[in-house]
Amino acid sequence: MPMGHTATAEAGSGGLTATEHRLANGLRVVLSEDHLTPVAAVCLWYDVGSRHEVRGRTGLAHLFEHLMFQGSKQVHGNGHFELVQGAGGSLNGTTSFERTNYFETMPTHQLELALWLEADRMGSLLAALDDESMENQRDVVKNERRQRYDNVPYGTAFEKLTALAYPEGHPYHHTPIGSMADLDAATLEDAREFFRTYYAPNNAVLSVVGDIDPAQTLAWIEKYFGSIPSHDGKPAPRDGSLPDVIGEQLREVVEEEVPARALMAAYRLPHDGTRECDAADLALTVLGGGESSRLHNRLVRRDRTAVAAGFGLLRLAGAPSLGWLDVKTSGGVEVPEIEAAVDEELARFAAEGPTPEEMERAQAQLEREWLDRLGTVAGRADELCRFAVLFGDPQLALTAVDRVLDITAEEVREAAAARLRPDNRAVLVYEPVGTEQSDSDEEEGADQ
Amino acid sequence: MTDAAASLTSMEFHPQPAPGTARPWAFPAPDRGTLENGLTVLTSHRPGQQVVAVELYLPAPLDAEPAGLDGVATIMARALSEGTDKHSAEEFAAELERCGATLDAHADHPGVRVSLEVPVSRLPKALGLLAEALIAPAFLDTEVERLVRNRLDEIPHETANPARRAAKQLSKELFPADSRMSRPRQGTEETVAAIDGAAVRAFFEAHVRPATATAVVVGDLTGVDLEKVLAETLGAWTGEPGEPLPMPPITADDTGRVVIVDRPGAVQTQLLIGRIGPDRHARVWPAQVLGTYCLGGTLTSRLDRVLREEKGYTYGVRAFGQVLRSDAGGNGAAMLAISGSVDTPNTGPALDDLWKVLRTLAAEGLTDAERETAVQNLVGVAPLKYETAASVAGTLADQVEQHLPDDFQAQLYARLAETGTVEATAAVVSAFPVDRLVTVLVGDAAQIAEPVRALGIGEVTVVTG
């Protein structure tokens, strides 16, 4: 039964509202109206990601995501792409540790088509899935891996850091792209089984945002998705909990052909959805977000030892989040000099906390990032799904910025003191090898 | 909706739905005006867009850089946010971030673009900072020296990136050595090292002034007295009157040939295959856009249909046309190119297939169905593409920079819809003639040179990485 509750804007939601519904087969639906532009975003989150993969089958969730674009019962081969693009829409899918999402942004009058397409593959992918598409997309994904990770300087840094920060056997030890060996090993039957296990209406959240008539939209959703059978039997994901602090400094030195030395580190941080995670986000922003951050000012402006220095945050709900430090050194600067400066800045910050000006700047930056994300129908649809899937309440998306603005300077200091410590990080050091760092364009001769 | 529905064991299928009635949408027509100081201002109110985008175009083109100082426009652009008469570099960055603003500046062939994005509530403050950067930039020797060193540190990172390296090589191949376009936009190690504070100040004095500049402001401007805000900020910028410099003619050597930038051990080959062609002033532009989309706009276009979805050689190959520079007289040019990366062992077969796709296109032309899908996509995605203030501001500023009328984009959609299959075919075939393409391959020469040579797509040269 649809069970919409009233669409009254909560304080601080920027006037945005969302209603929630649930079909009899368990599909959760979130709708949000906005008639400013004649477009509508459809977003579907399946509660499955690389953390659900088993040993020997890393990369399967992502490879499977590609197979979702290879046709279903009523949609031939590349029909999904062709129909959406031919209707003036844009679309894609992505896979992360904790979820797989599929999205279409359509001109309003083509919304029904997107719903029909998503329903067709949710209900009938296996009718079209065959060896030919499996073999083809395996090659495509292996080339994706080469292009984005293997053939780029520092391209596998993130993979190495997560492997260090999350121990062997932990569901987040490997990244969604998977290994070449496992991609080679995946079989058509693996893909079929993956679909049967995880691609069910009761394991998904569908959001539709934009220039919509909610009653009509809900009727279409009921029509196309309502008869897709639900099924249980999804295994609980392996436990991702870990101690708050690693307890030692893990370290790996990579000797590779890279243009400069680099110091990278992954800090174990609080789970997404907590005040502590928002506090850590603010700490990382003060320390390493943007051009007025402490690390940028220290390493790039004053010491001039780095070409770039910053922190990023990977928010995770099912395991500790990850704070990612990335410093590329300047000229011949050695890593220990950088590391000492970083440690000094982190220790000072943990002792003193942010200044009021720093808090104001960090909150203003995060607020703008939220306005950007909620400023498009596609961004809003994705955030509504995120909060519904990971935290059980899509409404939290509309008030997320208020929670960030509610954090105090002392909470930020505490987060830094508790987590941004040398015994809570995995360090990755890049040392360049080879002497081919010259910028020479000298031709070696036309060998024809 | 009922309990019975939940117990169904199989899905009920429905025929593909027909579209509803399209709601009209048009690319926004900006308001155009001039401040007392001569600054041209374009504004567009976009309801709901709480983050306002400001794009500033300064016609300080790269070919105006003094000999031996390639990169001075880039360093000047970066130095604009490194302090003023009122704020040090660190203070200026801090003040901007206090507004929740981002400020990016970069130099390209037509000039310098400064992009400001800020929540509307702090627009006056952020515009004040932008104005300060233009009225009284500090350009301190020490800050310029730091930016120069930073830029020198960046160059090896760019060289290591296969896509950046390929782009640099293609420019070197296509354009005559004395053309600014043949050389890296942000300078080489030698030229950047020669830049100092005096050079930056001189370049600014010579080329940056309100009379030749344009500001584009887009966003939800409800309740903003923009006239007053602009008068108090960018309106306070003064400068001598002046005319933008004339654009030198653009020529390129597109003799079919292959250059391999050697990367021993590379697991993929980066492809960049290009030449130059007409810009947006040309009558053929809409047909070229349409035909190029059919060739390589998406994964269901001709190139990816074979190279990705049939053969699995690549994660994706795209064809595109990107304007390099234009003038009012229609003498500009666009880079027409095909780019992507393919796995090393399949480099020869992938290029062979790519050339087959081009030859088949020339021999048989596009189909009406392809043309129809392309029009539907290119025209249909406009309201999505221009949902944000930043995307609207970017296109409006591009139009100014390329000497196009403010309604160019709006008219383009009408012209695309009118373009037929025959015109689109002719345009794409003449944009990508098989014997007039310069191919740059960044990859393992020992693995790929022989197979590529065997294809007969032009003389093969190998250069070091």
Note the main attributes of this structure.
heterodimer, A: 448 residues, alpha+beta, Cytochrome Bc1 Complex, Chain A, domain 1, 5-stranded mixed beta sheet, globular, disordered C terminus, B: 465 residues, 6-stranded mixed beta sheet, 18 helices, 12 strands, 20% strand, disordered N terminus
Structure description:
The complex is a heterodimer of chains A (448) and B (465). By secondary structure, chain A is of the alpha+beta class. Helices cover 40% and strands 18% of the residues of chain A. Chain B has 18 helices and twelve strands. In chain B, strands 1-2-6-3-5-4 form a six-stranded mixed sheet, with helices on both faces. A six-stranded mixed sheet of chain B has the order 9-10-8-11-7-12, sandwiched between helices. At the A-B interface, helix 2, helix 3, helix 4, helix 8 and helix 10 of A face helix 1, helix 3, strand 5, helix 5 and helix 6 of B.
Can you describe this structure in just a few lines?
Chain A is of the alpha+beta class. Chain A contains 15 helices and eleven strands.
Compile the SSE list and pairings.
The complex is a heterodimer of chains A (448) and B (465).
Chain A: E1 19-22, E2 28-33, E3 39-46, H1 60-67, H2 79-86, E4 90-95, E5 100-107, H3 111-124, H4 131-150, H5 157-165, H6 180-185, H7 188-198, E6 204-210, H8 214-225, E7 250-256, E8 262-269, H9 275-288, H10 294-302, E9 306-314, E10 321-329, H11 335-352, H12 356-374, H13 377-391, H14 400-405, H15 409-419, E11 425-432
Parallel strand pairs in A: 2-6, 7-11
Antiparallel strand pairs in A: 1-2, 3-5, 3-6, 4-5, 8-10, 8-11, 9-10
Chain B: H1 3-6, E1 31-34, E2 40-45, E3 51-58, H2 72-79, H3 89-98, E4 102-108, E5 111-119, H4 123-135, H5 141-160, H6 162-174, H7 189-193, H8 197-207, E6 214-219, H9 226-232, E7 257-262, E8 268-277, H10 285-296, H11 302-307, E9 314-325, E10 333-343, H12 347-364, H13 368-380, H14 382-385, H15 389-401, H16 408-418, H17 421-431, E11 438-443, H18 445-453, E12 459-464
Parallel strand pairs in B: 2-6, 7-11, 7-12
Antiparallel strand pairs in B: 1-2, 3-5, 3-6, 4-5, 8-10, 8-11, 9-10
Helix pairs in contact in B: 2-5, 2-8, 10-13, 10-16, 10-17, 12-18, 13-16
